[in-house]
Write a structure and sequence with these properties.
Blueprint lengths: L2 H15 L8 H16 L2 H8 L2 H9 L7 H10 L7 H8 L4 H19 L16 H15 L3 H17 L4 H15 L9 H12 L8 H13 L2 H12 L6 H21 L27 H18 L9 H5 L22 H16 L7 H10 L3 H13 L7 H16 L5 H17 L11 H17 L5 H18 L3 H8 L3 H7 L6 H16 L9 H4 L6 H11 L3 H17 L2 H4 L2 H13 L4 H19 L10 H13 L2 H8 L5 H18 L15 H11 L12 H10 L2 H9 L9 H10 L13
Helix pairs in contact: 1-4, 1-39, 2-5, 2-39, 5-7, 6-7, 7-9, 8-9, 8-10, 9-11, 11-12, 11-13, 12-13, 12-14, 13-14, 13-15, 14-15, 14-17, 15-19, 17-19, 17-20, 19-21, 20-21, 20-22, 21-23, 22-24, 23-26, 26-29, 28-29, 29-32, 31-32, 32-35, 35-38
Amino acid sequence: MDPECARLLPALCDVLADPRQPVADDTCLEKLLDWFKAVTEAGSSLLLLQDHPCLVELLFHVLKPQDLSSRILSFVLRLAGIFAAQENCFQYLQGDPSLFVASAAGQLLVRVLDLALCGPAEGHISLQAWDWPACARKIVCHLEDCLRSEATPRVTQALHVLTTAFGHCHGLWTQGLWVQLSPLVARLLEKDPVPAPHALVDLLLSVARSSMLSSDPGLWETAAQTLSRLSPTQAGPLAAGILKLQDCPQALRIQAFGVLLQPLAFVLEATAQAPGMPGLLEGAAGDLMAVDTLPPSKSACVGLLCSALAHLELLQPLVGVARPASALAAGLAAGTDAPTPPQPQRPSPWPQAPLLAAVVAILRLCNGSAAPNSEAGGRLCAMLGGCVRVQRAALDFLGVLSQGLGPQELVTQVFAILLEYLVSPDSSPTVLKKAFQATLCWLLSSAAPPGCCDLEPYAQLVLGELLSVLRKRLCSPCWEVRDSGLEFLTQMTRHQGGQAGFRQALLASEVPELTRQLLQDPESYVRASAVAAVGQLSSWGLLAAPSSPEHAATPQKTPLEELLLVLTTDSEGFPRRAVMRVFTEWLRDGYADVAEDPERFVARVLQAASGDLDWEVRVQGLELALAFLEQLLGPCGPSAVAPPGALAQALQALCRVQLFEFAFRSLFDCDRPVAQKSCDLLLFLRAKAIPSSNSQEAGDGPDVTSVEAALRRWQAGEQGQPLGELAPEAVLAVLRSMDLEALQDTLAESSDHVERSPQSLLQDMLATVGVLGDNEADCY
């Protein structure tokens, strides 16, 4: 630490300790916290304490948490984090009613333990806690007292401290701490009810993930007992966490999987789905939940089912290279083939068919189409009927299950229930969105093998019904429904636009024409989704001419003209941004109307984007400009510089479309993302156009005085003066003269960044209370 800072800091602590003294505003305090955190992490605080031992007295005996704001207390705790002689204060702070204070005190305990037991002599630290330094022993005794306590808050605090310790500290001492305290942790399971079950689960998972502790057989025994003692809702997170571990006993994995499967197994039993089907819990420990163990309240039952479905949804993709269904639904590109580290595997065997049957049964219970003839089934019907939360969770999991195989009979039931939800007027907009996403996943998983250009026969039949439903949903009075329908159409077209069966069915429907009409929708979100759908349909040649006579008599605009009209006239930003994304994709993919005259297309789009008031539209305009640059000069790489002939032609084309006018203006845009994107674009161009070894003598190049003057005016905020026609040589000369790297560094700094030294900060805070003389403050 700077000596001057060390001199000023005790005086500042006196100020913070005195409730009568006014302190600086929160911004100064936050900056002080950030600075001192860096100091303590660098170890400088040890020297500070040696030089100023009086700080111990000040911080632990003078300050009381109730006198401090949360930010000042955080500062105090960070400053005091390396003291090991005042452990009695930790107990006081840890019991504070403020969650912030208690959490900070817990972190402080862990910090003190780590500092006391880590270091050069760590290898000589005994694994027996009673051989540790006095401060560490006192903390361990405090944790033991908390774990023995009958007060649940004290137990919770101790479990939180241990979770933090085992999650963030990796020294050998953590083994000794676990050996000392694990019997007390296990003894918590003997109480009825088990205290602090959520904190206990967090602790066991933290220990299981620690490479220093996961080899302890006692850990797995305690985990198995915890799964048995907690309720299914409480045990769910522990079971899911166990199944995501790379290494744990197989018997425990089976038991954990059984915990997650039990609620769904109960649904199958209650709805009489089990006969003739392999049991859902075959190979998993435990029995089916009895009728009287079903949570008695609707909220508890709903919570249990949603939790089980969510945990199972995360487990299903943990195998091979299958992608999550959400990636398909979002139309994400496939990942690379780069090797990946070992990943946890989903449980095997995976009961795909029973899980499909259970989810279909849950969805039928929710929409009222199930007809159970048992007492338990009747209770489920009453509790789940119309429950949107369970419907959403079940549809999410159903979409994920599309990655696995299933009997044809069950797959038919899956499509049937999805169509029921899509058709039903009772389906809420959020449920409809989930139903569309799950349907997309199942249709994509039903695509024919590579080499064929059609869907499987049953999927082709479903597609016809689906397009009829989609046509109605695109006419819904609810804008969220129209929006979800357009999103589904966009993704389905992106993946299946080249398949003959899909093309034939789509062109025979009214969906493309309705999509075009929705470019005029009163809701901007819908217009944006319509733009994306029109972009995909046009890319695959699926926008047919209008079939109605009144539209046929009117000259029809091309999709390009329609989207240009949206870009230049729509009053909302969302549709205009969507247009720019479509145009960039068209340019990169060589869309026919764009490839016919790319220069004219780019010039028209950049002219519109450069004057747009929405900064995201301007950023997208620069993205399109970058795509055009890459088409002319090739991607950036090791041999980045373009050949002289190609470079000359490219620069002339860039000048014709006025790309440089747009890029140089954007360089001084008041919205930082625009300026950053422009800087990146110009750096890319300079790398392509100017070799690093090329230095031009002064006076050899063209006169760029007027250009540089215009740039200075733009930087000063005068945006009216255009550059006029630019010659390629002038552009290269300006690029040579600009320090784009320095500008890039400046733009990368935070928006409120100002160079301020810690010494200046301390001086100013003290000056606000008159501790310093009149001439000592550095008011930055």
